[in-house]
């Protein structure tokens, strides 16, 4: 619920203590799904930076990006795309 409601301080606290960024509820929504659905830009960026899977599929085969797009959360769409690209670039640089 912290991710869905934009409580960045709580999200950071939980992540700092080892919370699973990819935990799922009964509909297979992750914290990133909830952040995306509710337009939580900063939370979305932080979750991705901390290892959240932006390609995770929920029960309806929708990714967090799909959910943000379906709700018209363009800033979250942009943030997920940018954060995912930055994470991918950082990973490929380490592997080279």
Automatic annotation (TrEMBL):
ANK repeats lie at residues 1-26, 27-59. This is Uncharacterized protein. PROSITE patterns: ANK_REP_REGION, ANK_REPEAT. PANTHER family: ANKYRIN REPEAT DOMAIN-CONTAINING PROTEIN 39-RELATED (PTHR24171), BRCA1-ASSOCIATED RING DOMAIN PROTEIN 1 (PTHR24171:SF8). It comes from Ceratopteris richardii. Keywords: ANK repeat, Repeat. GO terms for molecular function: ubiquitin-protein transferase activity. The keyword Transmembrane helix does not apply. It holds the Pfam family Ank_2. The keyword Repeat applies. One of its GO terms (biological process) is protein K6-linked ubiquitination. InterPro entries: Ankyrin_rpt (IPR002110), Ankyrin_rpt-contain_sf (IPR036770).
